[in-house]
Design a protein that fits this description.
Elements (H helix, E strand, L loop, with lengths): L1 E5 L9 E10 L5 E5 L4 E8 L2 E5 L2 E5 L3 E5 L5 E5 L6 E9 L11 E3 L4 H6 L10 H16 L2 H24 L6 H7 L4 H12 L3 H20 L3 H7 L5 H12 L3 H7 L1
Antiparallel strand pairs: 1-2, 2-9, 3-8, 4-7, 4-9, 5-6, 5-8, 7-10
Helix pairs in contact: 3-5, 3-6, 6-7, 7-8
């Protein structure tokens, strides 16, 4: 676990006033809250994953996402026990109208990683830290209103739709989720998190379910044997197919056919 906060002096600037900045490589299961703040606080997730809870709503978050803590909201967040997150945070008072994007609980903004990482330079400054971070916050506000951010928000569903189409047409082949994420030009963890948010399943769970449903259809409606269905749905042998089929349907392929 590594945590560092940068000491700031409250300049009481009216439009954008930095209050807090820091970063942390969380220990497994590390949590904070329930707690509230009197200022706006943004956490950018660099790697790993965790859960953010606010107002009874819980979000599973990963790389490229920002969770937004609004003034006086009671929040709780906890790092995953196997892949704890690493995040950076910036807290500030905003005297401007709140941008529409910051009215949300969670943002998808992988383009902001470079900007948040550059904020760490404030730690090496002996003077002007507040002005430096104020400039970075202005850059962030500009990014939130720019085309790239709007495109990223809108393309999430496009990425998932493209992935689902690929999985549903290439399921009979050996499919690598890592290779699929590379073809989409997305980080594997980020892609998996995006896919789960849109479908409720991981890419691998979706693929497995689709293969087994297709295998059941091939046996039930097209007269294929379990061995033929296994080959037709991308399994290397009937034993692997049968094991996964029973786990999914609760019965073996042979028992399933007897009930049809």
């Amino acid at each position: 676990m590594e945590m560092q906060t940068v000491l700031l002096s409250n300049q009481r600037w009216k439009e954008v006033n930095p209050i807090q900045f820091g970063w942390e490589h969380c220990a497994p299961g590390h949590s904070f809250g329930p707690a509230s703040r009197s200022y706006l606080l943004l956490h950018y997730v660099v790697s790993g994953k965790g859960v953010f809870t606010v107002g009874g709503r819980s979000y599973d978050l990963g790389p490229g996402q920002i969770f937004v803590i609004h003034p006086y909201d009671m929040t709780y967040y906890e790092a995953d026990r196997e892949a704890p997150w690493h995040y950076l945070w910036i807290g500030f008072e905003l005297g401007l109208p709140l941008p529409e994007a910051l009215s949300r609980d969670v943002l998808l903004l992988p383009q902001a990683e470079k900007l948040f990482s550059s904020m760490r330079q404030a730690a090496s400054l002996t003077a002007g830290r507040e002005a430096f971070l104020c400039g970075k916050i202005w850059e962030l506000l500009a990014l939130l209103q720019s085309g790239p951010f709007q495109e990223c928000q809108g393309r999430g569903q496009d990425y998932v739709n493209a992935a689902k189409t690929y999985l549903e047409t290439e399921y009979m082949r050996g499919i690598s989720i890592s290779e699929l994420s590379r073809r989409l030009n997305l980080d594997r963890s980020y892609f998996s998190g995006l896919f789960r948010r849109e479908t409720g399943k991981s890419p691998q769970q979706y693929l497995t379910g689709f293969r087994l449903e297709k295998g059941a259809e091939l046996m039930r409606e097209h007269g294929q044997t379990p061995s033929e269905a296994a080959i037709s749905t991308g399994y290397s042998d009937v034993f692997s197919f049968s094991r996964m089929f029973k786990r999914y349907f609760g019965v073996s392929p042979t028992e399933y056919l007897k009930k049809c």
